[in-house]
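[step 3/7] fold_predict: job queued, chain A
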Amino acid sequence: MSPEWIWMAFIVAFGACVGSFLNVVIYRLPREKSLVWPGSACPSCNTPIHFYDNIPLFSWLILGGKCRVCKTPISPRYFLIELLTACLFIGVYLWYFYFEGRQMDLPGEMAIGRFMAGGWLVYLNAMILVAVFVAASAIDLELWIIPLELCWFVTAAGIIAASVSGYVLTPSQIDIHQIFPMATAKQASIAAGAGIGLIISLVCLRLGIIKPSYPYPEGHEKLSENPEAEEPEFNDRREILKEIVYLIPIILGGIIGYMIVRSEAGLAMWNNWLEIPAIRGFFGALMGYFAGCTVVWATRIVGTLGFGREAMGLGDVHLMGAAGAVIGPWMAVLAFFIAPFFGLIWALYQWIFKKSRQIPYGPFLSIAVFGVMIFHDWIQNVFMNWYGF
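[step 4/7] structure written:
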């Protein structure tokens, strides 16, 4: 067997192992349980699961989808998440490096050569986003929440990857093919101002100067204690006004950043700083984060004020912020406007059969982000041909 096929088999196996861990995250994280201790056990009889019964994909099939001890059925979700993750890991690898569906000007005649020639950072960044979004989508489908820790992890990974990308790939590669979000002087200045404003808002929130929106009353049962606990009633318009207050320092910071870069001195200062690849990448990813958050948060605020009911969730805000840190500001905004087309069929099903107009939106945002990430080059070419940019 050639090294290429051995490497692909390894990617499939690794993807299945990541999927196995995602199953742990999906169950434990929203219930505020440790991800590492105790080890896996049957939820019915509490028998610890031995390593030979915990092999991704194979164990579920060998056991016939049942616990070895008590014969209680094991949800097929565990198998499906492992299979989906394995397929996504090998699918993205093949698309990026075998079929070269994402142009990066990487040297090497074989896919594994292009992967090793700097493509590994692009792949790692993409698969962190994909894996975490799979977990976030599964949790949202089941419990209608998106743990913010997942979004923060992707955001941090995206910012770090963009910051170091200029030292793994050449700046010309990154700029020509928009492999990582790289900031212009205007974007960097706005992102810096908004970042300072975010720090101010977080400090004010911590000190109690700014009140949190949708606070749970003392004694309210947490999800980990009772998944069926009823949500408390809120005046949605009043709660969204608290979020507007929280956003004021961020908006003012962004405006000040924009005003600074309009001056010749400010523009020259930022152009000098952006000659350092790490600074360009850092503020590029940060701008992507703010752009992703902005488009969803603006929709949330306008929708809630207009209809008097909470429109979209804060988890969706942070999810798109995380996407923006990885795929860049413009692609994140585009993904947001594509997402409703993926959610339309599900919304019709909910409305017709369950008489509900509410849908968990995280999975459809995730699908849209994945689609934009995969078809990035085609989208870029369309915009260049139609609009000249």
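[step 5/7] annotate
The radius of gyration is 23 Å.
DSSP finds 14 helices and no strands in the chain.
exit 0
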